[in-house]
Design a protein that fits this description.
By secondary structure, this protein is α+β, with helices and mostly antiparallel strands. The chain is built from 7 helices and 20 strands. Residues 185-281 form the Fe2OG dioxygenase domain.
Length: 333
């Protein structure tokens, strides 16, 4: 939902295109809110919590600055990811496990969907990362920087995710006991995503990634500066242009905060790279709207279930959008 121009004022942010509304909430190009994560630890915390609630309710997608992850860590992990995707195809394919979504490390090449006559060009490397000591020795050793650079990023990203998730829970009005039941069991997995260029003549039948929503509590995106991500707002697809050293986030809850539909466009000009960190509950965590958020005016939309049920179900559901949650709705009975 773009903000009316008369509610915005240009600020002194070093990036042109960043504006501030009358309540102190920053926006990138009038359409994507920006949350200052470090301000959660200061006297402006209550204001930032309100900004976060507004961003989640009205947009479902926002950017985070001052997230505590150093430029060096961000640069190292992006460089390592790019090196990985430039390895010989046969080496990457050694990590390919088609149809096995339980493998702790799995590479997926681009695919051709003959039914829809479309090529999905994204290559991805998905891997489990939490607890780190259980998985780091299963990660690739080529490039040689992989395990060290990625481990540093995962640790720093997890800290930012916990801070952000706690703030999102607070913005919903959750009590401390309800927060802790989930926060102590938060886990993380990571996806490296590479979008190669394609021939101009093939653009009509090529996408980087089809439209989908994410089933995690929050999804944190680190992207290079190449546009390509498109978000669905107000009935139309909007091209998102990332800002340097910021992270992009979407979140969901009991229907109040909805995970945003998004996709990636293919390009004939420039390759694109992104790193996604998914923050989600452990598979034995019971999921359901906290009792303090439910009343006559705000009835439960979803039943109680454990996260493993959702995780197992989501791979069977097509399309990969919010309808994947339909079997868990109260009215599904």
């Amino acid at each position: 939902m773009p903000v009316a121009a008369d509610h915005l004022q240009t600020c002194t942010d070093p990036f042109p295109g960043v504006q501030t509304d009358l309540y102190g909430l920053e926006f990138w190009e009038s359409s994507v809110p920006i949350i200052d994560l470090v301000a959660l630890h200061g006297p402006r915390r209550s204001d930032i919590i309100k900004h976060l609630a507004h961003a989640c309710q009205q947009y479902g997608f926002f950017m985070v600055k001052n997230h505590g992850i150093s430029e060096k860590i961000l640069s190292n992990v992006m460089g390592t990811a790019r090196e990985f995707f430039h390895l010989p195809e046969e080496e990457k394919m050694q990590l390919h496990s088609p149809g096995d979504f339980t493998s702790p490390v799995r590479f997926a090449p681009g695919i051709k969907d003959d039914d829809q006559n479309i090529v999905v060009s994204r290559e991805s490397l998905k891997f489990l990362s939490d607890p780190l000591e259980n998985y780091v020795n299963l990660w690739p050793t080529n490039p040689s920087s992989f395990r060290e650079a990625v481990a540093e990023y995962c640790v720093a990203a997890k800290m930012a995710e916990i801070t952000l998730t706690e703030a999102i829970f607070e913005s919903l009005g959750m009590k401390r006991a309800s927060m802790d039941k989930i926060l102590v069991k938060l886990e993380q997995n990571v996806s490296f995503n590479y979008y190669p260029t394609c021939e101009k003549s093939n653009l009509e039948h090529t996408v980087g990634l089809r439209g989908h929503t994410d089933p995690s509590i929050i999804t944190m995106l680190l992207s290079d500066e190449v546009p390509g991500l498109e978000i669905f707002q107000n009935g139309e697809w909007i091209l998102f242009k990332p800002l340097p050293n910021t992270l992009s986030v979407n979140a969901l809850s009991n229907g109040g905060y909805k995970s945003l539909l998004h996709r990636v466009a293919a390009s004939s000009d420039t390759e694109r790279l992104s790193i996604v960190s998914n923050c989600y509950p452990s598979k034995d965590t019971q999921i359901g709207p906290p009792k303090e958020l439910i009343d006559d005016d705000h009835p439960a939309i979803y039943k109680d279930f454990n996260y493993k049920e959702l995780y197992d179900s989501m791979w069977k559901q097509r399309p990969h959008d919010s309808t994947r949650l339909d079997p868990f709705k109260v009215c599904a009975d």
